Structures are given as C-alpha cells and as structure tokens.
Amino acid sequence: MKEGEKMQIEKEDRGEVVFKKEIGFLLVHLAPLLVFWTGVTTFDWILCISLYFIRMFFVTGGYHRYFSHSTYKTSRFVQFLIAYCSQTSLQKGVLHWAANHRTHHKHSDTAKDPHSKKIYGFWYSHIGWIVGPDYKETKLNLIKDFAKYPELIWLNKFHLIPPLTLLISVFFLGGYVNASSAGVEITIMSIMSHGLSSLIIGFFLSTVILLHGTFSINSLMHMFGKKRYESNDESKNHLLLALVTLGEGWHNNHHYYQSTVRQGFYWWEIDITYYILKFLSWFGIIWDLKPVPKHIKDSRNKEEAKKLKLEYSKLNKK
Ligand SMILES: [Zn+2]
Ligand SMILES: [Zn+2]
Questions:
Q1: CA spacing 20 to 30 A to 76: which of 34, 118, 163, 186?
Q2: What does 21-50 look like in DSSP terms, one character per residue?
C-alpha cells in the first residue's frame, strides 16, 4: 500500500459526529440571529456582500486553484498572503483544505472520496464530512510541495488567526462607520456598540453564506447541471452555481482537467476568479498561468484527447 493510501477512510470506517466538539461551528451559524437585537445598517450589508465575494475569490483562487492544484506560480511572500486571506473564510488551514481536496480528485465518487454525494448522500457531502471526526487532521504527506514552507505549517496550525483578525477589523471599522453615520460622538464605547451589527451581518452572516457556497461545490455541483466531459464521476457544469462561486460551477470541466487555472473553458463560461487572476498576472504578482490545452477542450474523453493531441501536433509540424 502506498503512503497516503492507508489514510483514506472507507465507508464503514467513518465516525459519528461528536457534537460537543462542533459547538463553535454551530455558534457561527446561530450568531446572525442576534441581528434581531442589534438591527442592521446599509454599511453592514455592504460588508456582508463584499466579504462574501472577496473571500470566495480566495477560496477558489487560493485554497483551490493555487494550493490544491498549483495552476499558477507566485512569490513566497504573495503565497503567504494568499494563504492568509484564504483562511479568513474560516475553512481551516490551506494545507488541510488542499490535502482533502486532492483526495477528492484522486478518489472522486468512490468510497475513499471525503465527500462523495453519490456514495454518502447530499447532507454528508455538504456538511457531514466537515463536522465528522474523520477529516480533522492535515495529511501533510499529500501536500508535501507546500508543507516544506514553515510559515505555511505555522498558519495551518494556527488557522484561526486570519479569521480573528478579520473579525476584529470588521467590528472596529463597522463600529466607526455606523457611529459616524448615526451622528454620535466617536468614542471607544460608541464604536463598540455600533460595531456589533457589523460583526453579526458583515462577518458572521457573510461567513455562513460563504461556507455553504463553498460546500455546495462538493454537494450541488455533483448533482445539478450538464456533463460535457466523461470524467469518471458525477461532476456537472452549471452557470448559476458558477456565478455565485466565481467560476467553480464549471465543475465538470475542472474534474476532466484539473491542471489549468481556468474552470470556464469557453468565453461564455463566466469564470470571475480566472479574470481576476489574469489581471493580477499583468502586474507580475502571479505568473505561469496554466492554460487549457486545445486537445483537452475539443475532446470528450481521455481516449479522444490522446488522439487529438497527436493529430494537433502533426498539424503544427506541417
Ligand atoms: Zn479541484
Ligand atoms: Zn468535485
């Protein structure tokens, strides 16, 4: 048995949820209800929507396209920044996220897949595997390419530091803006009392929607939509899901060919994360964005892709 293989958990070995260990996760979901006591301002909604989309960009461009699939390159400093911003989404360390995601691709829709909707059903694929006991540890042997950086190991271990810094920033920024708009005198007390609604809507509600937006990639995107490529799993393409997840909805494309920075393979397959990454590459912040090879795009299965690759290389030589 290969190293790493023995760490994949089969169906019969999956453990039961230990509820007392998941209280924090439950409280994050309940926190937005406090809005009935605090009220809400326009600025809180602006924070909520902006922090959803900004962090979704880091989920897809960071956790997913960079750490899980290495579809572009960057400097060590920017790599750390991407990891830090990704982790503000409260989805644990980048090494933890990416190692589990690599397992998902390696064993897609089989019993060894951490979150196969086909094998384990909708709820388990959406949230059961997150709250369950089986995927709490980081399998560093599956992410050796990034585990060699001590700063990433540190950030992965103290994965709550980025979301906590964001939480504190939202609290004080929201408090300052809300107190100013209300025309009250700016004191530490007025900032703190006006910051509560920003915390609840701007941070917690936005985080809950972001968590479920991300989880839907594992559940809904193996259920709804069209399948263009024969990818040996149930992954699908769906425009609406691509819009709310900034490009992750082209999930069948991605399962067929994971080594490209693009998930929308055609111009009409809207992939906002890719557009942002492309924009960053113009300034030299990231580079070596891996394209979709033409033989992959034009084929429907790996067999056909092989033939087309040969055909296209002959044409190029002429
Ligand atoms: Zn992936
Ligand atoms: Zn998938």
A1: 163
A2: GGHHHHHHHHGGGGHHHH---HHHHHHHHH
